[in-house]
Amino acid sequence: LGAFTVNGVLRMAAGTKMAGQVYTANITLDWTKPPNALVDASSGPIIITLTSTLEIGLTYTIKKIDSSTNTVTILGTIDGATNYALSTQYSWVTVISTSTAGVWYITGKG
Known about the structure:
The protein has 110 residues and is an all-beta fold. 0% of the residues lie in helices and 51% in strands. The protein is built from no helices and eleven strands. The chain has strands at residues 3-6, 9-12, 20-23, 27-29, 36-39, 46-50, 59-64, 72-78, 81-86, 92-97, 103-109. The strands form two sheets. Strands 3, 4, 5, 6, 7, 8, 9, 10 and 11 form a nine-stranded mixed sheet that branches. Strands 1-2 form a two-stranded antiparallel sheet. A hairpin with a 2-residue loop joins strand 1 and strand 2. The chain starts with a strand and ends with a strand.
């Protein structure tokens, strides 16, 4: 159903649907949340907290969708830095969890 394995690695097929949700308030992203977080900070700054998981491979794409000057701050250790900010409309970052609690790596951004 949209996924297959190559040498034991799970791959997503082209055109696979990925769930997303629009957030307008602070939220903690954990394994129960969809992988795409669309953030509307038009009413004020928003904090997105990344879960402190030990599970490798939990992936989120977080995108600021509004044109306000309010910042979306992503809390966590991301590429060795404390926190990550999205300040312009349509800016985004994709992060993946590691085996170290609270440590995430950027796999894409724009």
